[in-house]
């Protein structure tokens, strides 16, 4: 039996997203629960895979299945492709497993030709509508299938409007439209040397081809890279019989959310346009009306729509984002899906749904994308500074947060400015998928057209980026690179500030501050804390960082990098004196000067963290990092130190390394200069003893030795640490406890973790370095080829952002397993950047780590991700049973 | 029951080397087969371990066991410690599991004091002997136990000789010796503020302590490092009742080998001294007589000795190195052990013993230390140049080979000269363990005193280093740094040449050539080839290297580094033009110029290797390695290329990397510039097709892609290679086969070897890079701390010399296992430097590799080591059963 590649809507359901795509699966589900969905069929994602395997051609098998499904569709609708009496018209839309809004191409009104347009005019009794549909179809088909530049068609429209003094497309007459259709067909003929295809089935095969091709267009690839969507799952194609929102004033089209996607408020939220079709609403060409107004214009339809949306929310047990069309007074549902929402909205909706009894706490935890929490930490304007600021204009509050930067008018200029270290605001009349790179780079986005569901708004919310949309007061001239609001003229490079939560635009730069965390955040975080097993610590070197992390719920410091203290302006001369010492005595003298400073640093941290664990890593970077490299600095240093310049240069030269990453650093420094480790141990211990007394608490320092690759290294350095620590205890008549552990960041350390664990009381995986060495990638250099690797799909994901489970992860798992064989009580954490990455956190949970440590602003993300990891594991366990 | 730490000789046997040390175990064995061995006891190596655990003190338990064994010894000998009538005198010698000649300290005549010296004089009827023994004892004890500098005692002896006009120690009278004893005791008193201990048991405990302490003296540590002997196994102490070779002219002492240790000839070979004691022979102070002469002086003793040595060789089934003493006409055996021998001797003895039926072929293979074969490859003098050379002097042919270099007179000067890139000859009156570093660094060694078993000779043979010993014609003045032979004066820095096989010394420098490989070598290699499973290939980039390796038995080329061809003087301008190209077109133009050159290189290799496999690795190093770094070279290049200097500098700068080891190189270059891989593939394929035709053979090129860490990298580059190769085949209408494989040198590659093996037809482990990344050691930089690690015993072995089985080896084993799961036919080799290291080769065999590839001169070593690995595995298997 041959494989099934084509499904009627009534043959599918919501579980079949992998095969039918999200859109197709939900259309099938809605069909089957009896909602008014225009009939249609879905060509599966598996057909897309076959298409690419077959050298980008549809196989005969698939074509036959499409033909068969079309026959069904014709029977169902009583219409026929190309029929003079009752022609079938369809829309053709892409729909992958994961939502990729606006990333791929759509064709409407397919089936129109020189004959059926006449029938459509007759049956609708509306020639204008028929010819408007036909010209739209040729335009879309020309763009998407034939790849003729859009502006060629738009230029014709503009000319007609100009010549006739029209402001709006709706003013075009039937005769205008007939002429435009002819001109459009002439453009096709001129550009592609073919007549515009008249056979609807031929049109359809072309269109399906084009949708499949669009899976690999550059914006789709960029979107997938950004959202970590696999490149090999393909898209489905949905072919649906057309309903028309543009047949007159009893028609319309719109989109709505069952709850407010910005705030989470439980109230239908959306927009619609009367007498409009398809992409008109989301494209932001015309500014739509609020969905509330529909209850006034079409009260019955509104009631029906409201009932349907409530049904859908209950059915899916989640906030829905729906699309609908009203054709001559009849409501049709064209799409439903989980609604994208800001983190504010997500938190409010989740906690309220728990209150409503719609979902459980556990489900609420799973509803929040941990990375989204990042948005909470985005700055708001400083209220003091705000007082002095005068708003310039009001737009739509499309994506919350505050942003300040210089304005640029296209994606390229933004990217360039950001690369040069500037903060930029992207200003566009409206955005399109071509602007995606600029949107990623910008601090915030301002558009003069489009609504809350315009491209700019949807994408910005997805990114958690501040956006003010539809600010019609702003006259944007992208060519001249300026915009005008009243009599204020803002040119490229001028500062503006945006408040995405209020929609206000300000001139100049306004100081930003961190937001207060809302009540729903606290509630959800508490639920998460009840569930998670792993502790969450922070990487912090200063009291300020420690305090921030503590406020975000950090349960300790997993990594304090002592070298950051060495770089301090007042200390660096002493550090350099230490490095340039020619004898141990000289070095010890310099270290004696550093000791009280380091002790002060540690006391500052202990005073904040009290009894929470603080892991201090001994000096890690190669010593040459502390020496000057510029000629003038070297000359100055030589003078300071009363050295010959050449002599100093020779010392600096002797410390230089070909591959410093693999050089004399970490515990290797402590083996060569045990006195440095001894000084740092003394500072840690004295600080802990003193703060324990001062604060009347019981501090247990954790001393971490970096870069261990050989068991004997650890033995050697640990001996220095323990001898010093015991001496300090004796001197202070103290019985303070402490523990000594190690970073696991050299591949070899994972392989002999059983040996190392005999000496170490804790492990902390340094997955940054472990990734560098396991891949043989220097982060300092790999940028040059990693971006090329990503483009050529050689590297599906950046291993420095999310841990490479297939490779590096194997070593982590091995290290954990071996370590626990000889030391079952071993405490194991991770302090690389992966400690704040949700996907990595799930892996660390599964691997049995005791804690993750991440930057202060990632602490809430880690808390939630750690809880989700527990739930994921439980549900996997249930599924396996 | 308490542990046994002390054994009488009659309680042990030859199998107990780990506990009794080699010397102790063999003394026990000889005792038990009825040979004349003076009775004694052994304090075990386990006692040494306890000694170090007990803070360098003997425990009471051990002391009690020593006391008990001493009682036995006193009963056995009928003598008593300190007894006025019949005092027991003993020697105290170290003896570890592995022979460490001269590395540790020995004390003779222990038990003598102011009383027993009188008894000894009376009983021996030889006061001179008694006092000479006493002064020797005080001198050794002072040196070894009390650590008083030797020269303080020697100065007294020299003064007495000078004052009395004596030439030789034997001329000292009894009165002289009595005075000397008093002066020696005064030295002890002055230097250490103690009276010389008179209680023999106290002397003994001191001495045992000192021997245990000597285990960790710097020369012992250096020796163990050099010979890869573990540092934690400790030494035993042998306490043996004294026999005296210095009681008169019916006494003597000597050492002998059962076969000639230089040539392997089956004939007793050794030296002795009449009226001498202990270390006199090996210390090289007096030049001894050949063992042949003993048959004339003491024919009966000689006969008895000859019988014993033959018995020992049969008993041990190996050539023996024995020590003996004749006391008043009675022969005593003091030591037997396997004799160290040159590789020439080892090969001859092994093959002859097979002929004699003494050992099997398999045993013969096991008898040769593979590393020793290296000596075979040492240079001899070029016969043509030799004709013009006039010998300056004749010494003893102590260790074969030929050497040329500038003379230096102490170890430090040699080391310095060698560090400066010179070739040096170490010239000493005699060598001592303090000279060991200089001996390692020197090309050859010349001494004016000492025999074939002197320190210099024994150590040089062990190292396979050319040595001429006992060249008495040379008057060496180490202080003035010159030596005089007749009227020729050779000063520091002058060239001389040594022939270690003839003992001849030449003035000036003589050209050296590789030796002919002797018949026994060929016989043994054939036996080895019959046994081994792994193939042996070579790393070769030029026809000359390929030919050398072929002559040594290489079965293919495992690694041809194409970049070596890029560095060629005529090509580098084209290579640079390629690198500086600003477009693919420009780059392809430059590559088109390189292609015929590379093709020529490959044709050269194929013509030599014919159908033997040749693995060509695609370009590996980062491109910046091909660009100039010096200002003047950059200026010249800019001029050549008609570029601005600043522009060129900017390009060079943009290619520089912080960690080039982990940067843009290997397959990463091929992903960025597929055209380079395509050019190289074309060159390889065209060369193979042409040579196959020209030589009428069937060449199957192996194309190797370096630095793979991600499966998709391999897919990407392999596609380029295969497309090019197929195109070349088509163009040439050829059906040539070829295979595409990869280096496994990135840790990650070993972890995903199953994925990689789906695409690769062969793996070649690049264990150099794999070691660098697994340890996080850059070889370019790690020298700075690796030597410190070795000193501090943090690194027991240099992982770049012998593969780190515990860490890196685990990854190799994993890579092999995973690779074979998805590709059971996968051919797997190694082409790092470890491919020529016997211990690593054993590991690679056990791990299931198909072949090793090493430098041409290591090929014979690898052949033998691969055979031994098979035998080792079989014997381990037998033992496990």
Automatic annotation (TrEMBL), chains A, B:
It catalyses: pyruvate + phosphate + ATP = phosphoenolpyruvate + AMP + diphosphate + H(+). One of its GO terms (molecular function) is metal ion binding. The keyword rRNA-binding does not apply. Its cofactor is Mg(2+). Substrate binds at residues 561, 617, 745, 766-769. Pfam families: PEP-utilizers, PEP-utilizers_C, PPDK_N. Keywords: ATP-binding, Kinase, Magnesium, Metal-binding, Nucleotide-binding, Pyruvate, Transferase. Residues 60-290, 302-356 form the Pyruvate phosphate dikinase AMP/ATP-binding domain. Its EC number is 2.7.9.1. Belongs to the PEP-utilizing enzyme family. This is Pyruvate, phosphate dikinase. The active site is at 455 (tele-phosphohistidine intermediate), 831 (proton donor). Residues 422-503 form the PEP-utilising enzyme mobile domain. Mg(2+) binds at residues 745, 769. Transmembrane segments: none annotated. It comes from the Bacteria. Residues 519-869 form the PEP-utilising enzyme C-terminal domain.
């Amino acid at each position: 039996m041959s494989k099934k590649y084509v499904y009627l809507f009534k043959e599918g359901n919501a579980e079949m997203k992998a095969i039918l795509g999200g859109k197709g699966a939900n259309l099938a589900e809605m069909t089957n629960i009896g909602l008014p969905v225009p009939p249609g069929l879905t060509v599966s994602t598996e057909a897309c895979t076959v298409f690419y395997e077959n050298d980008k051609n549809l196989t005969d098998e698939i074509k036959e299945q499409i033909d068969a499904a079309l026959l069904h569709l014709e029977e169902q609708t009583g219409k026929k492709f190309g029929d003079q009496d009752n022609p079938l018209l369809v829309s053709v839309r892409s729909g992958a497993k994961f939502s990729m809004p606006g990333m791929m191409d759509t064709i409407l009104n397919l089936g129109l030709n020189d004959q059926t347009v006449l029938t459509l005019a007759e049956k609708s009794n509306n020639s204008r509508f028929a010819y408007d549909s036909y010209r739209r179809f040729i335009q879309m088909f020309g763009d998407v299938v034939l790849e003729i530049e859009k502006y060629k068609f738009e230029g014709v429209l503009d000319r007609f409007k100009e010549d006739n003094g029209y402001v709006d497309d709706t003013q075009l007459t039937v005769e205008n439209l007939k002429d435009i259709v002819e001109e459009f067909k002439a453009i096709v003929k001129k550009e592609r040397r073919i007549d515009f295809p008249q056979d609807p089935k031929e049109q359809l095969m072309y269109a399906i081809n084009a949708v499949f091709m669009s899976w690999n267009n550059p914006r789709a690839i960029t979107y997938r890279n950004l959202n970590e969507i696999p490149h090999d799952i393909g898209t489905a194609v949905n072919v649906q019989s057309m309903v028309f929102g543009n047949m007159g004033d009893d028609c319309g089209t719109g989109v709505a959310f069952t709850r407010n996607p910005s705030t989470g408020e439980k109230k239908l939220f959306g927009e619609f346009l009367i007498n409009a079709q398809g992409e008109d609403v989301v494209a932001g060409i015309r500014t739509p009306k609020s969905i509330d107004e529909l209850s006034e214009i079409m009260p019955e339809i509104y009631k029906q729509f409201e009932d349907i949306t409530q049904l859908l929310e209950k059915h899916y047990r989640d906030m829905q984002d729906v699309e609908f069309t009203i054709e001559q007074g009849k409501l049709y549902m064209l799409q439903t899906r989980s609604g994208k929402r800001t983190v504010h909205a997500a938190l409010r909706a989740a906690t309220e749904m728990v209150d409503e009894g719609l979902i459980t706490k556990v489900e609420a935890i799973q509803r929040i994308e941990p990375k989204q929490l990042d948005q909470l930490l985005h700055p708001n304007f400083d209220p003091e500074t705000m007082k002095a600021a005068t708003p310039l204009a009001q737009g739509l509050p499309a994506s919350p947060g505050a942003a300040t930067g210089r304005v640029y008018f296209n994606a390229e200029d933004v990217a360039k400015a950001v690369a040069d270290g500037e903060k930029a605001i992207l200003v566009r009349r409206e955005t399109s998928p071509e602007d995606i790179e600029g949107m990623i780079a910008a601090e915030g986005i301002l558009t003069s057209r489009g609504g809350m569901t315009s491209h700019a708004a949807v994408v910005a919310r997805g990114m958690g980026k501040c956006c003010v949309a539809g600010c019609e007061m702003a006259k944007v001239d992208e060519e001249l690179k300026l915009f005008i609001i009243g009599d204020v003229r803002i040119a490229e490079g001028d500062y503006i500030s945006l408040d995405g939560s209020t929609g206000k635009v300000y001139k100049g730069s306004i100081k930003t501050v961190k937001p207060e965390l809302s009540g729903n955040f606290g509630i959800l975080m508490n639920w998460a804390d009840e569930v998670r097993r792993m502790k969450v610590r922070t990487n912090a070197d200063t009291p300020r960082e420690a305090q921030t992390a503590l406020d975000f719920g950090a349960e300790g410091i997993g990594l304090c990098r002592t070298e950051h203290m060495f770089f301090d302006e007042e200390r660096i001369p002493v550090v350099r004196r230490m490095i340039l010492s020619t004898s141990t005595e000289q070095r010890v003298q310099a270290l004696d000067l550093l000791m009280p400073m380091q002790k002060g640093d540690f006391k500052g941290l202990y005073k904040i963290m009290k009894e929470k664990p603080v892991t201090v890593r001994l000096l890690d970077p190669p010593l040459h990092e502390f020496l000057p490299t510029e000629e003038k600095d070297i000359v100055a240093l030589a003078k300071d130190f009363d050295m010959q310049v050449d002599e100093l240069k020779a010392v600096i030269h002797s410390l230089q390394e070909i591959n410093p990453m693999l050089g004399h650093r970490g515990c290797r420094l402590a083996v060569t200069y045990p006195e440095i480790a001894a000084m740092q141990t003394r500072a840690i211990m004295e600080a802990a003893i003193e703060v324990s007394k001062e604060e009347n608490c019981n501090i247990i320092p954790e001393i971490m030795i970096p870069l261990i690759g050989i068991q004997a290294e650890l033995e050697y350095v640990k001996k220095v640490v323990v001898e010093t620590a015991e001496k300090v205890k004796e001197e202070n008549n103290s019985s303070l406890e402490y523990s000594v552990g190690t970073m696991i960041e050299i591949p070899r350390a994972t392989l002999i973790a059983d040996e190392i664990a005999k000496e170490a009381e804790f492990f902390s995986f340094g997955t940054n370095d472990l990734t560098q060495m396991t891949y043989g990638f220097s982060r300092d250099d790999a940028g040059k080829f990693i971006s090329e690797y990503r483009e050529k799909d050689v590297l599906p994901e950046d291993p420095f952002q999310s841990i490479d489970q297939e490779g590096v992860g194997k070593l982590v798992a091995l290290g954990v397993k071996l370590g626990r064989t000889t030391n079952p009580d071993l405490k194991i954490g991770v302090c690389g950047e992966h400690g704040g990455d949700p996907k990595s956190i799930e892996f660390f949970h599964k691997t049995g780590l005791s804690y993750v440590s991440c930057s202060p602003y990632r602490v809430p993300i880690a808390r939630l991700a750690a809880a989700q990891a527990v739930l994921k594991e439980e549900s996997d366990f249930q599924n396996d049973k």
